[in-house]
Write a structure and sequence with these properties.
Homodimer. It holds the Pfam family Melibiase_2. The chain is α/β, with parallel strands linked by helices. The chain has 2 domains: about 300 residues, Alpha-Beta Barrel (TIM Barrel), CATH 3.20.20.70; about 80 residues, Golgi alpha-mannosidase II (Immunoglobulin-like), CATH 2.60.40. Helix content is about 30%, strand content about 20%. It contains 14 helices and 16 strands. Helix 6 links the parallel strand 3 and strand 4. The longest helix has 18 residues.
């Protein structure tokens, strides 16, 4: 198979990874933005506004509904959490009406449930939502503030900053976070603001300063948005795939499974493709009202195990068929591997015929397991042809 070169590239890059020991597998949890955006109307919409109530509710659900044990441990605040003004000491402060207990108290609540708290900042004069940003002169004090509050992860956006400020600021925040002595996972939005590709983006440098990074635009609650992201990552996989590894991940953005835009087949497709891409798994949905179908997809233990494989090698597309079927492959530890047969078709189930030999597998006999049917399949020889029936916009994994 093709694993040899991939292993070598990964090994060379891992030695340069951010040395905070964190996120050796893709981080998992819940993130507010796609589902709840910047809803600050707590008078008329108290259950859904960006407030400590929302984040306590989600922490409760992660802790009580089986998510935490599967690895979903981060409760991540996004934009619009802060006051419009810094305090008298120049520190960021939570909005006093929506977070009356402050972020430190919320962090204790989250930690008491065996979870971790993530927070949002922006390397610029303002956040994307118009709240105080982190200018270059505020990097150290903001890092210290987050550490004192007990924050476990920082997502640093890039609105209202230029390329020079980003080039200075993102590495400076790495040093500032490390200097606090608190282990804080670091998500950088830097490449997304520079087009996501070399020469503007240096992925070797990113692997030295960030645990994960946003490469591309924000996901929206639609199948078109998921497909657009998958296509961009696939078109540039030769650049992106070697950049990922333990402690440093490409981030194609949130899981929108359980919201309004995806069918069940499309939900399985997003889960499968994010698992193959070794992507962070941050759900952005309402865990309080999640339906059983979405829960089954998001809690699929084998899909999660594939995503969390300790080798940390990002998968890639092997084949793009004229029929509208794409085949993705990811090498896993213990000599295993994951295959995803993905249909772009919208007409009817498509019967795709192939063999493991045609997919570059070495000669031998293989045990097979269908991830979403959750059952073993008949043992298969490499040269034996087999057929998978793939639903429109669906997957077989």
């Amino acid at each position: 198979m093709r694993a040899t070169v991939v292993f070598l590239l990964t090994f060379l890059a891992v030695t340069l990874a951010l040395d905070n020991g964190l996120m050796r597998t893709p981080p998992m949890g819940w993130l507010a933005w796609e589902r709840f955006r910047c809803d600050i109307d707590c008078e008329d919409d108290p259950q859904n506004c960006i407030s400590e109530v929302l984040f306590r509710d989600m922490a409760d659900r992660l802790a009580e509904d089986g998510w935490r044990e599967l690895g979903y441990v981060y409760v991540n605040i996004d934009d619009c959490w802060s006051s419009k003004e810094r305090d008298a000491q120049g520190r960021l402060q939570a909005d006093p009406k929506r977070f009356p207990g402050g972020i430190a108290k919320l962090a204790r609540y989250v930690h008491d449930r065996g979870l971790k708290l993530g927070i949002y900042g922006d390397l610029g004069t303002y956040t994307c939502g118009g709240y105080p940003g982190t200018t270059l002169d505020k990097i150290e004090i903001d890092a210290q503030t987050f550490a004192e509050w007990g924050v476990d992860m920082l997502k640093l956006d890039g609105c209202y900053s230029n390329s020079t400020e980003q080039e200075q600021g993102y590495p400076l925040m790495t040093k500032a976070l490390n200097a606090t002595g608190r282990p804080i996972g670091y998500s950088c939005s830097w490449p997304a603001y520079q087009g996501g590709l070399p020469p503007k983006v240096n992925y070797t440098l990113l692997g030295e300063i960030c645990n994960l990074w946003r490469n591309y635009g924000d996901i929206q609650d639609s199948w078109d948005s998921v497909l657009d992201i998958v296509d961009w990552f696939t078109e540039h996989q030769d650049i992106l795939q070697p950049a990922a590894g333990p402690g440093r991940w490409n981030d194609p953005d949130m899981l929108i499974i359980g919201d309004y835009g995806l069918s069940m087949d499309q939900s399985r497709s997003q889960m499968a493709l994010w698992a193959i891409m070794a992507a962070p798994l941050f759900m952005s949905n309402d865990l309080r009202t999640l339906n059983s179908g979405a829960r089954a997809v998001l809690q699929n233990k084998v899909a999660i195990a594939i995503n969390q494989d300790p080798l940390g090698i990002q998968g890639r597309r092997l084949i793009k068929e004229k029929s509208g079927v794409d085949v993705f492959w990811r090498p896993l530890s213990g000599g295993s591997s994951a295959l995803v047969f993905f249909s772009r078709r919208t007409d009817m189930p498509y019967r795709y015929q192939t063999s493991l030999k045609a997919l570059n597998y070495t000669a031998g006999t293989y045990k097979m397991y269908d991830v979403f049917l959750e059952k073993p399949m008949p043992v298969l020889k490499d040269a034996t042809e087999f057929v998978v029936s793939i639903n429109p916009t669906g997957v077989v994994m």
